[in-house]
Design a protein that fits this description.
This protein has helices at about 15-30, 35-40, 45-50, 60-70, 80-90, 95-125. The chain is mainly alpha-helical. The chain has two domains: about 1-95, 434 Repressor (Amino-terminal Domain); about 95-125. Helix 1 (about 15-30) runs antiparallel to helix 5 (about 80-90), helix 2 packs across helix 3 (about 45-50) and helix 4 (about 60-70) packs antiparallel against helix 5.
Length: about 130
């Protein structure tokens, strides 16, 4: 696979699964890894190391890199890109944007349930 706009060959053998998703995302958008790194304010080698398993990256950093790619993505391809981002996040053991949204929505439910349990316990006290 050739890198968009740069023509540099990607060494697929060194990429982990999440790196392959990242490469596909860059290909859809037509942006190079170097451009994503520049916009994120990190060295391109940081992305290379992150997506080859040599560097552990925090979820927030991955979301930032994903936001950069999403910003450049044509509207008709956003759904595919978001789905690939979710797979990439799962392969790295992180929650996706949808997981986080669902967790926030479910938080109210669990808060209410815990409050009910605590209220019942309080009523049972002599």
């Amino acid at each position: 696979m050739q890198r968009p706009r740069r023509g540099r060959k990607i060494e697929q053998g060194r990429r982990n699964v999440s790196g392959m998703y990242f490469d596909l995302a860059c290909a859809i958008v037509g942006v190079s890894q170097e451009e994503v790194a520049r916009r994120a304010g990190v060295a391109a080698s940081t992305l290379s190391r992150a997506f080859s398993g040599q560097l552990r990256v925090r979820r927030e950093q991955l979301i930032l890199w994903g936001a950069i790619v999403l910003e450049l993505c044509p509207e008709e391809d956003r759904e595919l890109l978001v789905a690939m981002e979710a797979e990439m996040m799962h392969t790295l053991g992180h929650a996706t944007r949808e997981d986080e949204r669902r967790g926030v929505e479910r938080l109210t439910y669990f808060q209410n349930r815990v409050n009910e349990v605590l209220a019942r316990r309080e009523l049972r006290k002599p």
